[in-house]
Design a protein that fits this description.
- The protein is α+β, with helices and mostly antiparallel strands.
- The protein has a domain at 18-26 and 42-94.
- Helices cover 17% and strands 20% of the residues.
- It contains 2 helices and 5 strands, in the order E-E-E-E-E-H-H.
- It has helices spanning 77-89, 91-94; strands spanning 18-19, 22-26, 46-48, 55-59, 68-72.
- A 3-stranded antiparallel β-sheet has the order 1-2-3, with no helix packed on it. Strands 4-5 form a two-stranded antiparallel ribbon.
- Strand 1 (18-19) and strand 2 form a beta hairpin.
- The longest helix is centred in the last third of the chain and has 13 residues, at 77-89.
- It is extended and about 45 Å long.
- Residues 10-21 have a biased composition (Polar residues).
- Residues 1-48 are annotated as: Disordered.
Length: 98
């Protein structure tokens, strides 16, 4: 193999903000990906994207207290059980009362 062959180029890993399971991405169509030196970076406009899968609501609260989180319905049952146990253990971090 020659030098440089087979090398894969990785893409930047960007996390998109989510609100109510809707992902938001920069609306940068038609903009250059390079910024000129000295040019101020403007706040990027966000556009709403559709969710990729249906969600299931899990209540982590006890009794009448409601502490809801949402997880994907396509999660395998064994992983769902372990994830729910972890979320219950740290419910004060992952969920809050309304």
């Amino acid at each position: 193999m020659k030098k440089g062959e087979g090398a894969s180029r990785s893409l930047p890993n960007k996390t998109l903000p989510q609100i109510n399971n809707a992902a938001f991405a920069p609306n940068d169509t038609g903009k250059s990906s390079r910024q000129d030196e000295g040019e101020e970076i403007e706040e990027e406009a966000l556009k709403e994207l559709e969710s990729t899968e249906d969600l299931e609501i899990i209540n982590l609260g006890k009794g009448e207290e409601t502490k809801e989180i949402r997880i994907g319905k396509l999660i395998p049952p064994d992983f769902k059980q372990r994830l729910t146990e972890l979320l219950r253990e740290y419910e004060d971090i992952f969920a809050w009362s309304y």
